[in-house]
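Appendix B, example 12.
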Amino acid sequence: MYKGQYFQLLKRNQMAELVFDSQVDQVNTLTKAALEDLEKAIAVIQVSSIKGLIIRSGKKLFSAGADVKAFRDLFGSGASAVDEYLSWAQGIYSRLEALAIPKVAILNGVAAGGAVELSLLAEYRLGTPDMKVSLPEVKLGIMPAWGGMTRLPRLLGLDTSLEWLTTGKNFRSDKALTHHFLDGVIDPKSCDVIEQAEALLLSCIDGDLDWQARQKEKQSPLTLSQHELQMSLNVAKGMVAKVAGRHYPAPSIMLKVLEKSASCGLEEALAFEREGVVECIDSGVADALVSFFLSDMMVKAKTKTLSKGIKNVEEVGVIGAGIMGGGIAYVTADKGINVVMKDLNKAGLDLGLDEANKLLAKQVVRGRKSPLDMGKTLNRIIPTLNNAALESTDLVIEAVVENPKVKGMVLAELETVAPNAIIASNTSTLEISGLAKSLKKPENFCGIHFFNPVHKMPLVEVIKGDKTSDETIKQAVNYVKRLGKTPIVINDCPGFLVNRCLSPYFLAFNQLVLDGANIQAVDKVMSKKFGWPMGPAHLLDVIGLDTSAHCIDVMDQAFPVRMAKPEQNIIQSLVDKKHYGQKTGQGFYQFVADKRGRVKPVASEETAALIATMTDKSCDFDEHVITMRMMVPMMFEAIRCLDEGVIASPQEADVAMVYGTGFPVFRGGIFYYMDQIGAQGLLDLAKEFEHLGALYAAPASLNERAKNNTKFYA
């Protein structure tokens, strides 16, 4: 009937199959070309005599939805162009829906975004057991606008559709059936899914099922009273305000669109969808989130390339069984990899095993693991006080105390006891090339820097020393990928990327407080206004002030002019008093348990008194000054890391800073954020704060970027 590059029409008795099977890509993506192809296929159907239509995919995964790569160009084309494109796409979908024949969609594998909206055009939907559906547009700062905002509430009901639309969650076939998105789940192992769809269409043709009523339902106003509508929306508004907050406007805009379109017919409701998308784009958040999504995809693609053809490690050694070592052992064993965990004494082993046991127990309590699975995971962790058990390991990760002499001795010993293993250090700041001097085969050595808490933090820095081989890096990347984490390859330097960029941020905070800023005021601006998960004082307490003080010492030695250890060092002064932050209950904040046992930070009078002995200044800095005094040193250090080749690209840096520090993703990443300021704007900030010293000196490359008006993202 029709054979396009994306869609094909196959005659099947008195019916037809509309098959989405891209001939140009491995996955089905709803690009502009694919929509044009669909438009042609619909035109063929309109003049045919078929009595029913099956919509299905020709691939293992139904479709991941629209072409996200094209979004940024569309966003930059202006409101009228966005409205025109969406109106065109909506028109194609509406023509398919309006066909005067019953339609059944078969969903298999993954169906997301525009692909889910495509399935909504059918009067009936069948899914396979492996199916997962989602409308993830909200995670990109926009909303479904090919009819999803209109049709979904009319099919699922307003309350259920709000969960789908405002969270972007995945729903498996059983949940989709419960939510009335699916009309049935068919296992292709037990019967032919296409035959089942054909049987359903025959029931429609024979008049046993009223498919026209279903078609009409999707095009009519919602069957809710004004009171019911307002009740549902008010509850949703409260949830959206709590979960999404002020920095992510898309969910709130969705609610406005739903409120406006509830009493409308199809065409008017679709117009409100388009208006909503334009409002989302105008916020600027959508472009930032799409940019970050694309950066993340680029990192995943690079990871896939690096790990291609690499043999999986079967046994991993972890040296140093503290909380960090126990965390590494847990995430490794949890992915089915055997672990040998070694320490010098039984107390250390007990601490590491307790950490793994605690994390697994939480999984059992939350219903995410069975007690049997917990036991199997723990059994993969073999504790030992001896080196003999390490001989068969493929990879050994050193996680002992952050002391170069101690690490050097441990690493030299490991090279002897595990001769066939890749050796890695979990150091957070020490140069890999320096530690490699203890080894006879430095090419087999790299850094694998996990962040604390290991089980929660998605980033792992894989550090390449001067003599680290490419094969070693590939092995490390493959191991990290198997853990479900994001590996970013870093070229060696003190602090690597994340801690090198965090150090000037913390030094800026120290100086800001000494200049009279209120700790709580700074934290409020940087968390509530800028968007960090927590302010710098709270973050320091969570990291551990002793850990941060050590990092500052390393940076002082590496960059003595720019990151010189301050003469008045509040962080070190707190450490000298054994106040290490959250782990000791006292740091910049005092950590107090509330009535429900939740530990929360409160203002510390003792810390305030300590600071008063160091400065008598008090100043009510405005939001701009606080924000830029904190951010400029971090931004400039990130630029230097890019210029020096520490990080390969702005995209990788942005992913690393979001996943490793909590940099607010709605700002797109640190380099995307700098592009919004512009190179000249960054130089202006350097001029504004030059009186504060070398920490605020602009990188030399910034002058050239400003001269040529060059962005980090081409």
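The two ends are 44 Å apart (CA to CA). DSSP finds 30 helices and 22 strands in the chain.
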